[in-house]
Hints:
The chain has one helix at residues 317-320, and strands at residues 6-11, 16-20, 27-32, 47-52, 58-62, 67-71, 101-106, 112-116, 121-125, 131-135, 164-169, 175-179, 184-189, 193-196, 215-218, 227-232, 238-242, 247-252, 257-263, 275-280, 286-290, 295-302, 305-314, 330-333. The protein is an all-beta fold and 334 residues long. The chain has one domain (6-333): Methylamine Dehydrogenase, Chain H.
Amino acid sequence: xxxxxxxxxxxxxxxxxxxxxxxxxxxxxxxxxxxxxxxxxxxxxxxxxxxxxxxxxxxxxxxxxxxxxxxxxxxxxxxxxxxxxxxxxxxxxxxxxxxxxxxxxxxxxxxxxxxxxxxxxxxxxxxxxxxxxxxxxxxxxxxxxxxxxxxxxxxxxxxxxxxxxxxxxxxxxxxxxxxxxxxxxxxxxxxxxxxxxxxxxxxxxxxxxxxxxxxxxxxxxxxxxxxxxxxxxxxxxxxxxxxxxxxxxxxxxxxxxxxxxxxxxxxxxxxxxxxxxxxxxxxxxxxxxxxxxxxxxxxxxxxxxxxxxxxxxxxxxxxxxxxxxxxxxxxxxx
Length: 334
């Protein structure tokens, strides 16, 4: 155990962001309803993803307010990341006013990658608040969602995405994202376009999900059911959380396989949720916000496999009966 940092996570049902210390167990609300100090000025409505930028600011995907809110490590309220900080309801999207940010992650160069699930677009935002669309056609009456397919580079700019809910840049510069409308994980590379990480037509054997971890599947025989989060560890290994399968998978792209590393330990069989968000700490502890268990749980890898750490934080999600469709955000910082 090393720790020495805080774990921030969204409590969407309560429109707030909590900060928990794995070392002391202390929990405080830093933004939204119930926050004290400077953070109480942040009015959150359906907060989803979280990130820490390169200057130590906490970024919050304030989905229903259609903006990315930014707090300093001292919790001072700062300007929103978007160009104007003002949003208006409208039917057709424009480059200045994308709608429904559901995930926020920091790229290698410090830019911010945001998945706008309502618009069906993914943008990069620089430190000045300028937006550059990466993938996804702008919403209009002439853009229709087509059946899932691989998209060549020439068609990326005009291809409509079906509810991209989470997007992250890999260590080698690729964009991995979940396309929730199709329940798939996609990869974007400018030279090759967009492709599905797993075969969309494959059907996972339900028996695998009832067996204890670890379970290993060939990627050709795996299909995500409700992917919520993607993460990379310190060795650049890829991980996928699936809330409906109630487990987290390690994806071995070279071997073409997925390995189940954890499964939710549900206390109430009526709760169908599982891992809604995950992130790696500086010490490579994997922190999971698990709606099924109603808490934040840590996992570490050893020679014997993955095991839980002693520290955990109750989020009361079990008490409010979050639905299986609930996604969330979690990130580690000082």
